[in-house]
Design brief:
Blueprint (H helix, E strand, L loop, with lengths): L4 H28 L6 E5 L2 H10 L6 E3 L5 H11 L6 E5 L16 E4 L6 H9 L12 E4 L6 H20 L1 H7 L1
Helix pairs in contact: 1-2
């Protein structure tokens, strides 16, 4: 158990960091809402999601997270499609795959708690950057606190990306064939 205690420490630190970032995320999203109609905000920890939902209650917030029934998740997506619902807060894992419909009404994504995994980040952005998106550009913002564990997560994420790209690239496949 002691060999893996650092994983628990890291997880607790990331949760505390997520909570500490809430005021900055709220400020950033508030500024964005002055120029865009809707935003999708993605986070990982439930207490971060709850704090963000409370902060955006006046913007017709919709929450989509693990533990919800499939029907409740479908309702959340449909609610966000209404004009008065301007903020969709999704839990990274629950909203990362198998969700469709956000792209019909939104082209701005904020990742409030970055992932270690490039593929997960791409999946989050792909919830908006897909067939049915009417805007020419999807804007995605990855928010992290420089000089913190967040910064380490982003650096690891960025270091993994070229490996992922090479594994998916045609050059690698052509070299093997």
């Amino acid at each position: 158990q002691e060999e893996f205690s650092q994983l628990g420490d890291t997880s607790r630190l990331l949760r505390l960091l997520g909570m500490a970032k809430v005021p900055a995320v709220v400020s950033f999203v508030g500024d964005l809402l002055e120029t865009v109609e809707k935003v999708v905000v993605l986070a990982y920890h439930r207490d971060v999601i709850a704090a963000l939902a409370t902060a955006f209650k006046d913007f017709g917030v919709v929450v989509f997270q693990g533990g919800m029934t499939d029907d409740d998740k479908e309702i959340a997506v449909h609610l966000f499609q209404r004009p008065e619902r301007r903020v969709f807060i999704g839990q990274r894992v629950a909203a990362g795959t198998g969700i469709n419909g956000l792209q019909k009404v939104c082209s701005t994504c904020i990742i409030a708690e970055p992932s270690w995994v490039p593929g997960e980040t791409q999946q989050l952005i792909d919830r908006l950057d897909r067939m049915g998106q009417e805007d020419d550009v999807v804007n995605a913002y990855l928010l992290y606190a420089q000089g913190t564990l967040d910064h380490v997560v982003v650096k690891v994420h960025d270091r993994k990306q070229p490996v992922v790209d090479a594994l998916h690239g045609d050059d690698l496949l052509n070299g093997l064939l």
